[in-house]
Amino acid sequence: MKKYRPVIAAAMALLFYTLADILIWQRIFETNQMVQYATIYHTGWFVSLAGYAIMGVILMWGAWKDCLYFLISLFVGAFSGLEDVLYYILDGKPMPETLPWLEGNPMIYHVSRVGVIGSVSFWIMALAVLYIVLYHWQTAIATKVAKIFIPARKTLGIGE
Fold first, then answer.
1. Residues 76, 119: contact at Cβ < 8 Å?
2. What is the pLDDT of residues 98-124, one digit of tens each?
3. What pTM was estimated for this model as a whole?
């Protein structure tokens, strides 16, 4: 369970971050025709994301890989379009054909529904590769190196 801690923590933070987005933006700002305050809302949205990030790092302090993976996956999830996809899934509404507010986001291939879902798929695969590199690659390399050098050391009489 511990090796999946940063993955679970990032997923839970993104889930609650998205739920707060639904409750505040849709249920308060849109319902009460307050969309003119979107800039202020987005500042608060980013501050809450930073709060989740800081809380996660504090709780995982001492495990640099966990902190690094948690931060990267949380921010990738928030800005890659994943938060937008989750927004519509959790709200039970169909995702619109275009998501124009994502225009100019360098992490999004295209603002169409297909483009956003494609971007999300790409970034989830990138996070999976990062996880493998951080948590499994070093172990796999160390095992291979040990298989080569331990027999060689015994053959040469080194370390006996």
1. no
2. 999 999 999 999 999 999 999 999 999
3. 0.81
Question: How buried is residue 76: exposed, middle or buried, by Cβ count under 10 Å (0-12/13-18/19+)?
Answer: buried
Q: How far apart are CA 42 and CA 24, in angstroms?
A: 11
H-helix or E-strand spanning residue 11 = helix 5-21
Q: Judge contact between 14 and 78, C-beta under 8 A.
A: yes
Spatial distance between the Cα atoms of 133 and 75, rounded to a whole number of angstroms = 19
pLDDT in tens, 23-49: 888 888 777 888 788 788 888 889 999
How many whole angstroms from its chain centre is CA 88? Answer: 18
Q: Taking a C-beta distance cutoff of 8 angstroms, is the pair 120, 77 a contact?
A: no
